[in-house]
Amino acid sequence: MTLLYSEEQRLLADSAREFLAARSPVSHQRALRDERREHGFDPHLWQDAVALGWSAIPFPENLGGLDFGCMGLGPIFESIGHNLSASPLLSSVVLSGSLLHLQGSALQQDVWLSAVISGERRMALALDERPRHDPQHVGLTAEPRGPGYCLDGHKYFVIDGVGADAYLVAAHAGDAHTPDQGTSLFLVPADTPGLTVSALPLIDSRNHAQVRFEQVQVGPEALLGEIGSAWPALNTALDRGRVCLAAEMLGMAQKLFDMTLEYLKTRVQFDVPIGSFQSLQHRAAQLYVELSLARSAVMAALAALDDPALSEVERQRLASLAKWKTGAMAIRVANESVQMHGGIGVTDELDVGLFLKRIRVAQACLGDADFHCERYATLECAHV
């Protein structure tokens, strides 16, 4: 297992950094927020990112991908975090695309996965139903009706759910009471009768939605795989999304740390830079250590997701470790950054507040530090 990017991945990182710095700096995200864009991102920027091959990175070549794996996504998401860039890469490609790749039929892959890779269509995963991430709780039901199924229930915190062309919906089907036997996935186009989508504003000004299913009738072709068989693929896709979110938080935390260091060097009090105060030096040094540890956890998780020699439990354990440690670290860096900037740190004049808000949402998305600490402990016991 390597904790360093390869030469090819470093070139990808340089390309992403230059592209986003030129086309999607933090000021661009501020403008999207002020304009209250419904989709929360710039569609033209997304199409340019697709043209660079970002949407094809994790998929095999026979499906139209580049076969760079999750390690190829790492530097992209770090750059996204560094610039606070909004895009449907996580929702449409990493989560929905992975599920179509792992669980979808040849027809579903030909129609939908190819359209996701080409950027022609955008998909979103409808999973969570509670205020906190809990993938094992699926209350939305899928009852057999005629040749197909009737979906009834609601989903919250659907990432990039507003304006999506279709949804991959986790539903409980059958008599099983455990997620590994009772969870199924259905592909539901956005224009299906009975499906309603409403925006769910959060503090990061991104695209989140609430999706309701009221007696939504779908055909047998909407089911991904066999009934009740979706949990393994869902678990894998969620871990990919969690590690990508960890990489994004790593990029945000690194940018905040760099901004804070620069402020410590230039802000003068009592005729000296405040960075000369020993207490602030100690706090900055501690943040540097935590950043380095989090980077190691993220790199290990990215490598693990691409390593077929590891067991599924080992991959899940490292994914939770990365999301847990990086989320906790990013929260601390954001809080310390505000504190070290002083009163101006909480004003909208600085970008610090934008990073803090996005970190708060990303840390909670797909499981916060408490969720993954508990999951890691459970998996560690299973691993032993």
Total helical segments: 12
Write down the overall geometry: globular
Neighbour order of strands in the largest sheet? 1-4-5-8
What is the name of the CATH architecture of the largest domain? Up-down Bundle
How large is the share of residues in beta strands? Answer: 5-15%
Average predicted local confidence, pLDDT = 94
Structural class: alpha+beta
CATH level 3 topology of the largest domain? Butyryl-CoA Dehydrogenase, subunit A, domain 3
Spans of at least 5 consecutive residues whose pLDDT stays below 50 are: none
Major sheet details: 4 strands, mixed
Q: CATH superfamily of the largest domain, please?
A: Butyryl-CoA Dehydrogenase, subunit A, domain 3
CATH class of the largest domain: Mainly Alpha
Number of strands: 10
Keywords: FAD, Flavoprotein, Oxidoreductase
Domain Acyl-CoA dehydrogenase/oxidase N-terminal: 6-120
Protein name: Acyl-CoA dehydrogenase
Family: Belongs to the acyl-CoA dehydrogenase family.
